[in-house]
Structure formats: structure tokens, C-alpha cells
Amino acid sequence: MFCGQCGKNLPDNVRFCQSCGRPTAPTPIPASFTNATAAAAPALSSFPAPGTASHHELVDSVASGPLRAAVAPARQKWSRHSIMSEQQNQSPTLATETVADSVSAPMYFAVSPLKLLVMSTCTLGLYEIYWYYKHWCSVKEREKSDIAPLGRAFFAFIFCYSLFKRIRATGQSHNIPRTIAPGPLAAGFILFSVLYKLPDPYWLLSFFAALFLVPVQMAANEINLATSPKHDRNSTFSKWNLVAVVYRRFMFCTRSSSYISSI
């Protein structure tokens, strides 16, 4: 506190000024000020807390006329910022869910008929084992069964009819217009596949076995297109496809040259 006569800064607990000796009695508070404070206390205690609906209504009522017009742009900008922040926080999750829903796994192994024929012919039927294996893997994953895809691929003579029948049943359940005849297609595949045991050059007829797989694959592709429109069509040749083609063609040329030299 300060001395009322000389203005010296004094400690709070002294009774006389150390400079001029004047008593430091506190200045009495006017009665009018005390009465005004007591009258305003109930009004201050009833003032709404910030953030409540009553507080917003009070602010809106006070901010009228020019003051309201000046505050409105700032409030609109803050509202847009809040909405954009919420959208940015939610957008990664929504984008992930959209991608997961739009790109689902196909029901059967996807490959173009042209690639199936080229790979089956150039690999001397080796690709057909891979073709059966991928189809049975799709069946096992979808049906949650305990079948052995690799075993069924190696013994395709026994299990090809079962696979063809499954594909036809799936197409019928999804109202696919294309249908296949599992019995004739399986019989044709088995018959031409065993022709590889014939002597040269009649064993080349076994290449026609892949033709009986084309209608089956076309039916599977239509099922995949109906159930998973954005799946990979698998119509291009990868580097491993080209390596397999080159190797098997080399083996074919070697066998052909030995046959020609024996004539």
C-alpha cells in the first residue's frame, strides 16, 4: 500500500508511514459501492455458464445489429473449420472401407481364355495343373473345407468333373446366362489328356485337351465379373509366365529334334 500523504510505498502490516508519520488506517469503502455490489451479486450468480445453450442465446441477443454482423463471418468460418476437421478425421476410414468393398476377391481363379490356351500349349500341359490348383484353392477358401488343392490338381482326371459341376452350380445360383456341360467337358479333357502316351507325332493331339477348359474358364470369368466387377482379369503375361514358356518350348524343340533325327 501507499501513504495517503507523501505517497511512499509501505508494507501492508504497518500502522504509520515511515516517512511522514501519518497513520495508515484503511480508507473506508463508501456505502453506496457496497450496496451496489450486493445488489449485483444475485444477477452475476445467475449468469449462464459458457458453452451452454442459455449462454449462446444471451450472446446472440447481445450481439445484435452492427455487432452481430461483424461477428457472423468469424462464426461461419469457425463452423466450416470444425466440419472440415471432422471430415478429414473420418475420410481415411471411409476410404479404406470403400476400397475394401469395391475390390473383393473373385470367386474363382481369373485368367483370360487366350492366356489359358497359350500357357497350356507352350508349357506342354504344365499350366493346366496350376490352373486346377488355383481353382481348388478358391473353392477351399470360399467353402472353408479341408480339401487338398494340390492333390486334386495332380489327379485332375478324377476331380475335374467335380470342379466343373461346382462352377455350373455357382453360375446358376447367380443367374449367369452362360452354362456348361460338366460331363462332356470332363470326358473330352480326360480323353485328350491321355493321348500324350501315344508315339510321335500322335502325342501332339494331347494339346487339344486345353480346349475343353476354355468354356469352363469363360463361365468362371462371368461369375467373377458378376460378384467382383473390379477384380484383376489376369490377361497379361508376367515374367515368370515367359520363363516357363521359354523353358517348355526348349524341351519341346529337343524332343522334336530327336524324333526328326530318328526318321
Care to describe what's here?
- The chain has 263 residues and is mainly alpha-helical.
- Helix content is 62%, strand content 0%.
- It has ten helices and no strands.
- The chain has helices spanning 31-45, 53-62, 66-102, 113-122, 126-143, 149-154, 156-173, 182-193, 214-227, 239-262.
- Mean pLDDT is 78; it is low at 94-102.
List keywords for this structure.
263 residues; mainly alpha; rod-shaped; single chain
Which descriptor suits the 3D outline?
rod-shaped
Assembly type of the chains comes to: single chain
Sheet of most strands: none
Distance between the ends: 128 Å
Given helix and strand content, the structural type is mainly alpha
Q: State Rg.
A: 44 Å
Order of helices and strands: HHHHHHHHHH
Instruction: Indicate the proportion of strand residues.
Output: under 5%
Number of E-type strands: 0
* DSSP summary: helix tally: 10
- Unreliable stretches covering 5 or more consecutive residues: 94-102
- The helical percent reads 55-70%
Q: Quote the average pLDDT.
A: 78
Structure, briefly:
The protein has 263 residues and is an all-alpha fold.
Write the layout of secondary structure elements.
Blueprint (H helix, E strand, L loop, with lengths): L30 H15 L7 H10 L3 H37 L10 H10 L3 H18 L5 H6 L1 H18 L8 H12 L20 H14 L11 H24 L1
Helix pairs in contact: 4-5, 7-8, 7-9
